[in-house]
Specification:
Length: about 375
């Protein structure tokens, strides 16, 4: 069953195209992340589903009923969609509890609304916010406001929830905590959701499926692990952080890079291949293990990042012996002395070869 479907949406502002034929579906109970850089049209897609923007071409269905097309515009309040935007938009003159219950509309004393008021109290207790029920939003921290905004969006029990960068104003520690709580709450409620983000890690953490957007189009769609491990273009690969990147000519089906020789896949002889090697694909290690091609490098710097350590290395290019620097990673705390030497090996699972036409030469 499809909770929300976009069909061939083409949209622009002042004659400037923003969405170029977007089709996507969110299944019942599914959590989809729209991942892409600033300006690629993510928020516009959410606004169209919410009814805050009028469809110019294509159609949008909720629960398999068309709610928006060139001929039809069901108003936002009749769409049963929950919204949570990055600024939370809590009403400053209403208390926390009043904010949460705001979306329930008239008939405050109805049995359904009483049930939701009990739900809201239970949720506040779960988040440790019971004492804040009568406070005004201006007195709450960012994390507390975020939780209240989430509860307000979920209070009417909407079948579909749209979230636009909901964690962008939180600090790193709060963001991780809130990602987990938000995903859990939405899944428990059985709500279908689309969340917009430009953070690849965040999309990996939250999504059942990721839709990668670029310049108004969906360029790849799949499970988080497929998007991460099988990016179809340099653009998609680069959404997950900085990678070592080398562009060389294909020779006898292979491409020789400063960090090793890799299969060129479908690229033809003489074509330019751009090879992306994620830092986690270059793994420093001590000892005498033979790596095939003597890979040994000097430590330029290293930083412990919590889960892993990032190491900047200087070594000899396996193409021409020239001095090159590159980025490596090792799990846990690994802080070798600057100037010391280390072996490294390359994990092919983190090596991606693209042609020019896949955006391999894009910055
Ligand atoms: P961000 O991550 O920065 O929010 P986004 O991917 O969500 O970006 P949109 O907000 O959908 O992108 O905007 C896409 C393009 O459309 C941008 O160039 C933006 O300036 C433009 N745009 C969005 N809304 C309007 C509007 N109401 N009038 C004119 N241009 C608009």
């Amino acid at each position: 069953m499809t909770a929300l479907a976009y069909r061939d949406i083409v949209h622009g502002f002042d004659g400037r195209p923003v969405l170029d034929g977007v089709s996507l579906q969110v299944r019942q109970g599914e959590f989809v992340c729209l991942l892409g850089p600033s300006g690629c049209g993510k928020t516009t897609l959410l606004r169209l589903a919410a009814g805050l923007e009028i469809v110019q071409s294509g159609s949008i269905s909720l629960d398999e009923h068309v709610v928006a097309s060139k001929q039809l515009h069901v108003p936002p309040e009749q769409r049963s969609i929950g919204l949570m935007f990055q600024d939370y938009a809590l009403f400053p003159h209403l208390t926390v509890m009043e904010n949460i219950l705001f979306g329930l509309g008239q008939g405050e004393r109805s049995a359904i609304n009483k049930g939701r008021a009990i739900w809201a109290r239970n949720m506040l207790a779960r988040f440790g916010l019971t004492k804040l029920a009568d406070h005004y939003p201006g007195t709450l921290s960012g994390g507390e406001q975020q939780r209240v905004a989430l509860l307000r969006a979920l209070a009417p029990n909407p079948p579909v929830l749209l979230l636009d960068e909901p964690f962008s104003s939180l600090d790193a520690a709060r963001r991780i905590e809130m990602r987990e709580e938000t995903a859990k709450l939405i899944r428990e409620a059985g709500t279908s959701a689309i969340m917009v983000t430009h953070d690849g890690e965040e999309a990996m953490f939250m999504a059942d499926r990721i839709k990668v957007m670029n310049k108004g189009r969906i360029v790849q769609s799949g499970k988080p692990e497929d998007i991460y491990l099988k990016p179809k273009s340099a653009f998609v690969a680069s959404l997950f952080g900085h990678a070592n990147r080398f562009c060389e000519t294909v020779n006898k089906g292979y491409v020789q890079t400063p960090l090793g020789r890799f299969k060129a896949g479908d690229l033809s002889e003489g074509a330019t291949a751009c090879v992306f090697i994620r830092p986690e694909g270059v793994i420093p290690f001590e000892g005498d293990e033979e790596t095939g091609e003597a890979r040994n490098a000097e430590v330029v710097s290293s930083h412990y990042l919590g889960i892993a350590s990032h190491v900047h290395l200087r070594g000899k290019s396996l193409v021409d012996g020239a001095s090159i620097t590159f980025h490596a990673q090792r799990s846990g705390r690994y802080l070798p002395r600057i100037g010391s030497r280390t072996n490294y090996r390359v994990d092919p699972a983190h090596v991606f070869v693209f042609g020019k036409e896949d955006g391999g030469e894009q910055e």
